[in-house]
Write a structure and sequence with these properties.
The chain is mainly α. It has one domain (13-264). It has helices at 13-26, 28-56, 80-115, 122-153, 156-164, 168-175, 179-190, 194-223, 229-264. Helix 1 packs across helix 9, helix 2 packs antiparallel against helix 3 (80-115) and helix 8 packs antiparallel against helix 9 (229-264). The protein is globular. The two termini are 25 Å apart.
Protein backbone atom coordinates (compact mmCIF):
# COMPACT_ATOMS: atom_id res chain seq x y z
CA UNK A 1 0.00 0.00 0.00
CA UNK A 2 2.76 2.40 -0.80
CA UNK A 3 5.06 1.72 2.15
CA UNK A 4 8.14 0.98 0.08
CA UNK A 5 9.32 4.53 -0.52
CA UNK A 6 12.92 4.97 0.42
CA UNK A 7 14.00 7.33 3.15
CA UNK A 8 10.68 7.34 5.03
CA UNK A 9 10.83 7.16 8.80
CA UNK A 10 8.78 4.23 10.03
CA UNK A 11 5.60 4.96 11.95
CA UNK A 12 5.99 3.49 15.44
CA UNK A 13 2.68 1.77 16.17
CA UNK A 14 3.61 1.20 19.81
CA UNK A 15 4.38 4.88 20.32
CA UNK A 16 0.99 5.89 18.92
CA UNK A 17 -0.79 3.45 21.24
CA UNK A 18 1.12 4.73 24.28
CA UNK A 19 0.39 8.35 23.36
CA UNK A 20 -3.31 7.59 22.95
CA UNK A 21 -3.44 5.71 26.27
CA UNK A 22 -1.80 8.59 28.09
CA UNK A 23 -4.21 11.07 26.51
CA UNK A 24 -7.19 9.09 27.80
CA UNK A 25 -5.62 8.72 31.25
CA UNK A 26 -4.86 12.43 31.60
CA UNK A 27 -8.21 13.58 30.23
CA UNK A 28 -10.47 10.88 31.60
CA UNK A 29 -12.86 13.22 33.41
CA UNK A 30 -13.36 15.35 30.30
CA UNK A 31 -13.95 12.21 28.23
CA UNK A 32 -16.48 10.96 30.78
CA UNK A 33 -18.34 14.27 30.86
CA UNK A 34 -18.47 14.55 27.08
CA UNK A 35 -19.65 10.95 26.77
CA UNK A 36 -22.46 11.38 29.31
CA UNK A 37 -23.70 14.70 27.90
CA UNK A 38 -23.34 13.98 24.18
CA UNK A 39 -23.96 10.26 23.78
CA UNK A 40 -25.22 8.34 26.79
CA UNK A 41 -27.92 10.68 28.16
CA UNK A 42 -29.57 11.52 24.78
CA UNK A 43 -29.53 7.84 23.81
CA UNK A 44 -31.19 6.78 27.06
CA UNK A 45 -33.87 9.47 26.85
CA UNK A 46 -34.76 8.65 23.25
CA UNK A 47 -34.70 4.91 23.87
CA UNK A 48 -36.88 5.36 26.94
CA UNK A 49 -39.40 7.31 24.88
CA UNK A 50 -39.36 4.70 22.13
CA UNK A 51 -39.84 1.75 24.44
CA UNK A 52 -42.51 3.69 26.30
CA UNK A 53 -44.49 3.92 23.09
CA UNK A 54 -43.91 0.23 22.46
CA UNK A 55 -45.21 -0.58 25.94
CA UNK A 56 -48.32 1.48 25.31
CA UNK A 57 -49.04 -0.63 22.25
CA UNK A 58 -48.58 -3.77 24.32
CA UNK A 59 -45.18 -4.61 22.85
CA UNK A 60 -42.48 -5.73 25.26
CA UNK A 61 -42.58 -7.12 28.81
CA UNK A 62 -44.28 -4.04 30.34
CA UNK A 63 -47.56 -4.47 28.45
CA UNK A 64 -49.42 -1.19 28.80
CA UNK A 65 -47.55 0.07 31.86
CA UNK A 66 -45.04 2.29 30.09
CA UNK A 67 -41.29 2.40 30.39
CA UNK A 68 -38.85 4.48 32.45
CA UNK A 69 -39.52 8.23 32.41
CA UNK A 70 -42.32 7.76 29.88
CA UNK A 71 -45.16 6.03 31.71
CA UNK A 72 -48.35 5.87 29.68
CA UNK A 73 -50.35 3.67 32.05
CA UNK A 74 -54.09 4.12 31.69
CA UNK A 75 -53.93 5.48 28.13
CA UNK A 76 -55.65 3.70 25.29
CA UNK A 77 -53.58 2.56 22.27
CA UNK A 78 -54.04 4.83 19.28
CA UNK A 79 -53.20 4.44 15.58
CA UNK A 80 -50.84 7.43 15.76
CA UNK A 81 -48.51 5.48 18.03
CA UNK A 82 -47.01 3.59 15.09
CA UNK A 83 -46.00 6.83 13.39
CA UNK A 84 -44.78 8.28 16.68
CA UNK A 85 -42.66 5.20 17.25
CA UNK A 86 -41.11 5.49 13.78
CA UNK A 87 -40.36 9.18 14.37
CA UNK A 88 -38.83 8.33 17.75
CA UNK A 89 -36.42 5.77 16.31
CA UNK A 90 -35.61 8.02 13.33
CA UNK A 91 -34.81 10.89 15.69
CA UNK A 92 -32.70 8.53 17.75
CA UNK A 93 -30.64 7.57 14.70
CA UNK A 94 -30.06 11.20 13.70
CA UNK A 95 -29.13 12.21 17.24
CA UNK A 96 -26.78 9.22 17.51
CA UNK A 97 -24.92 10.18 14.31
CA UNK A 98 -24.66 13.89 15.11
CA UNK A 99 -23.69 13.38 18.75
CA UNK A 100 -21.02 10.88 17.72
CA UNK A 101 -19.37 13.39 15.40
CA UNK A 102 -19.56 16.11 18.05
CA UNK A 103 -17.93 13.84 20.64
CA UNK A 104 -15.24 12.82 18.15
CA UNK A 105 -14.41 16.45 17.33
CA UNK A 106 -14.57 17.52 20.99
CA UNK A 107 -12.14 14.89 22.27
CA UNK A 108 -9.77 15.32 19.33
CA UNK A 109 -9.59 19.00 20.33
CA UNK A 110 -9.02 18.03 23.96
CA UNK A 111 -6.33 15.49 23.08
CA UNK A 112 -4.41 17.75 20.69
CA UNK A 113 -4.50 20.58 23.23
CA UNK A 114 -2.99 18.18 25.75
CA UNK A 115 -0.25 17.22 23.30
CA UNK A 116 0.49 20.93 22.83
CA UNK A 117 0.93 21.36 26.57
CA UNK A 118 -2.46 23.02 27.08
CA UNK A 119 -5.25 21.36 29.05
CA UNK A 120 -8.62 21.85 27.39
CA UNK A 121 -11.49 21.65 29.84
CA UNK A 122 -14.98 20.29 29.34
CA UNK A 123 -16.54 23.57 28.15
CA UNK A 124 -13.86 24.46 25.60
CA UNK A 125 -13.81 20.91 24.23
CA UNK A 126 -17.58 20.84 23.94
CA UNK A 127 -17.58 24.18 22.14
CA UNK A 128 -14.90 23.01 19.70
CA UNK A 129 -16.89 19.83 19.11
CA UNK A 130 -19.99 21.74 18.07
CA UNK A 131 -18.03 24.21 15.94
CA UNK A 132 -16.19 21.54 13.94
CA UNK A 133 -18.91 18.88 13.82
CA UNK A 134 -20.61 20.10 10.63
CA UNK A 135 -17.52 19.89 8.37
CA UNK A 136 -16.70 16.59 10.06
CA UNK A 137 -20.17 15.24 9.26
CA UNK A 138 -19.90 16.44 5.65
CA UNK A 139 -16.49 14.80 5.29
CA UNK A 140 -17.83 11.62 6.87
CA UNK A 141 -20.76 11.43 4.45
CA UNK A 142 -18.69 12.23 1.35
CA UNK A 143 -15.77 10.01 2.26
CA UNK A 144 -18.07 7.28 3.52
CA UNK A 145 -19.89 7.06 0.21
CA UNK A 146 -16.63 6.71 -1.72
CA UNK A 147 -15.28 4.16 0.76
CA UNK A 148 -18.53 2.17 0.57
CA UNK A 149 -18.34 2.17 -3.23
CA UNK A 150 -14.75 0.92 -3.05
CA UNK A 151 -15.71 -1.83 -0.61
CA UNK A 152 -18.62 -2.96 -2.77
CA UNK A 153 -16.49 -3.04 -5.93
CA UNK A 154 -13.36 -4.87 -4.87
CA UNK A 155 -12.98 -4.36 -1.07
CA UNK A 156 -9.30 -3.43 -1.38
CA UNK A 157 -9.95 0.06 -2.86
CA UNK A 158 -12.31 0.78 0.03
CA UNK A 159 -9.67 -0.22 2.58
CA UNK A 160 -7.08 1.95 0.80
CA UNK A 161 -9.43 4.93 0.95
CA UNK A 162 -9.99 4.35 4.67
CA UNK A 163 -6.24 4.32 5.35
CA UNK A 164 -5.56 7.24 3.01
CA UNK A 165 -8.15 9.46 4.72
CA UNK A 166 -7.68 8.15 8.24
CA UNK A 167 -6.44 11.42 9.74
CA UNK A 168 -8.92 13.67 7.94
CA UNK A 169 -10.91 14.29 11.19
CA UNK A 170 -7.97 15.74 13.17
CA UNK A 171 -6.93 17.78 10.13
CA UNK A 172 -10.41 19.35 10.09
CA UNK A 173 -10.55 19.92 13.85
CA UNK A 174 -6.96 21.03 14.47
CA UNK A 175 -6.09 23.02 11.36
CA UNK A 176 -9.63 24.29 10.70
CA UNK A 177 -9.17 23.79 6.98
CA UNK A 178 -11.75 22.89 4.34
CA UNK A 179 -12.92 19.37 3.70
CA UNK A 180 -11.01 18.83 0.45
CA UNK A 181 -7.86 20.32 1.97
CA UNK A 182 -8.23 17.96 4.93
CA UNK A 183 -8.53 14.95 2.59
CA UNK A 184 -5.37 16.08 0.77
CA UNK A 185 -3.54 16.62 4.06
CA UNK A 186 -4.44 13.14 5.24
CA UNK A 187 -3.38 11.61 1.92
CA UNK A 188 0.00 13.33 2.16
CA UNK A 189 0.60 12.41 5.79
CA UNK A 190 -0.34 8.75 5.43
CA UNK A 191 1.51 8.13 2.17
CA UNK A 192 4.14 5.44 2.55
CA UNK A 193 2.95 4.32 5.99
CA UNK A 194 -0.33 2.58 5.28
CA UNK A 195 0.71 -0.91 6.35
CA UNK A 196 1.37 0.46 9.84
CA UNK A 197 -1.98 2.27 9.70
CA UNK A 198 -3.66 -1.00 8.74
CA UNK A 199 -2.18 -2.65 11.83
CA UNK A 200 -3.49 0.20 14.01
CA UNK A 201 -6.92 -0.03 12.41
CA UNK A 202 -7.12 -3.79 12.96
CA UNK A 203 -6.07 -3.40 16.61
CA UNK A 204 -8.75 -0.75 17.09
CA UNK A 205 -11.42 -2.97 15.53
CA UNK A 206 -10.39 -5.87 17.77
CA UNK A 207 -10.61 -3.53 20.77
CA UNK A 208 -14.15 -2.52 19.77
CA UNK A 209 -15.19 -6.15 19.40
CA UNK A 210 -13.79 -7.00 22.84
CA UNK A 211 -15.52 -4.01 24.48
CA UNK A 212 -18.83 -4.84 22.84
CA UNK A 213 -18.56 -8.51 23.82
CA UNK A 214 -17.76 -7.68 27.44
CA UNK A 215 -20.72 -5.26 27.68
CA UNK A 216 -23.07 -7.78 26.05
CA UNK A 217 -21.93 -10.42 28.54
CA UNK A 218 -22.53 -7.98 31.39
CA UNK A 219 -26.01 -7.23 30.06
CA UNK A 220 -26.78 -10.95 29.79
CA UNK A 221 -25.59 -11.63 33.34
CA UNK A 222 -27.53 -8.69 34.75
CA UNK A 223 -30.76 -9.79 33.09
CA UNK A 224 -30.10 -13.48 33.88
CA UNK A 225 -31.05 -14.64 30.41
CA UNK A 226 -32.25 -13.34 27.09
CA UNK A 227 -35.77 -12.21 28.10
CA UNK A 228 -34.81 -8.61 28.94
CA UNK A 229 -31.39 -8.60 27.29
CA UNK A 230 -32.31 -5.99 24.68
CA UNK A 231 -33.47 -3.60 27.37
CA UNK A 232 -30.21 -3.89 29.28
CA UNK A 233 -28.44 -3.08 26.03
CA UNK A 234 -30.36 0.21 25.94
CA UNK A 235 -27.77 1.38 28.45
CA UNK A 236 -24.74 -0.60 27.34
CA UNK A 237 -24.96 0.25 23.62
CA UNK A 238 -24.35 4.02 24.04
CA UNK A 239 -21.67 3.26 26.60
CA UNK A 240 -19.94 1.02 24.05
CA UNK A 241 -20.28 3.71 21.38
CA UNK A 242 -18.88 6.39 23.69
CA UNK A 243 -15.88 4.23 24.60
CA UNK A 244 -15.14 3.58 20.94
CA UNK A 245 -15.41 7.28 20.06
CA UNK A 246 -13.14 8.41 22.91
CA UNK A 247 -10.50 5.78 22.16
CA UNK A 248 -10.79 6.50 18.43
CA UNK A 249 -10.43 10.26 18.97
CA UNK A 250 -7.40 9.79 21.21
CA UNK A 251 -5.86 7.42 18.67
CA UNK A 252 -6.47 9.81 15.78
CA UNK A 253 -4.98 12.73 17.72
CA UNK A 254 -1.90 10.70 18.67
CA UNK A 255 -1.52 9.37 15.12
CA UNK A 256 -1.90 12.82 13.58
CA UNK A 257 0.67 14.27 15.97
CA UNK A 258 3.11 11.49 15.19
CA UNK A 259 2.68 11.80 11.43
CA UNK A 260 3.21 15.56 11.67
CA UNK A 261 6.34 14.97 13.75
CA UNK A 262 7.70 12.59 11.14
CA UNK A 263 6.86 14.97 8.31
CA UNK A 264 8.32 18.13 9.83
CA UNK A 265 10.67 16.87 12.52
CA UNK A 266 10.79 18.12 16.09
CA UNK A 267 7.70 17.60 18.24
CA UNK A 268 5.24 18.17 15.41
CA UNK A 269 3.35 20.88 17.27
CA UNK A 270 5.17 24.07 16.38
CA UNK A 271 2.91 24.90 13.47
CA UNK A 272 -0.14 22.77 12.73
CA UNK A 273 -0.89 24.68 9.53
CA UNK A 274 2.36 23.97 7.67
Amino acid sequence: MGDTAAGLERLDVGRVIVLASNLIRRNGLVALGLSVVLVITPALLLASAGFGLMALEGVGPWGGEGFGLFNFAGMEPDPWLGDALAVSWGAGLIVAVVSSFVLLAAFIHCAVSDLDGRRAGFASSLGAGFRRSLPLIAAGIGGGLIIALGLVMLVVPGVIFVLMWLVTPPAIVVERIGILSAFRRSHRLTKGRRWALLVLLILFLVFLIVVRSVLELAAFLITVGFEHFIYAMIFFSPVSRAIGLVVGAAGLAALYRELRRIEHGGDGAADWTR
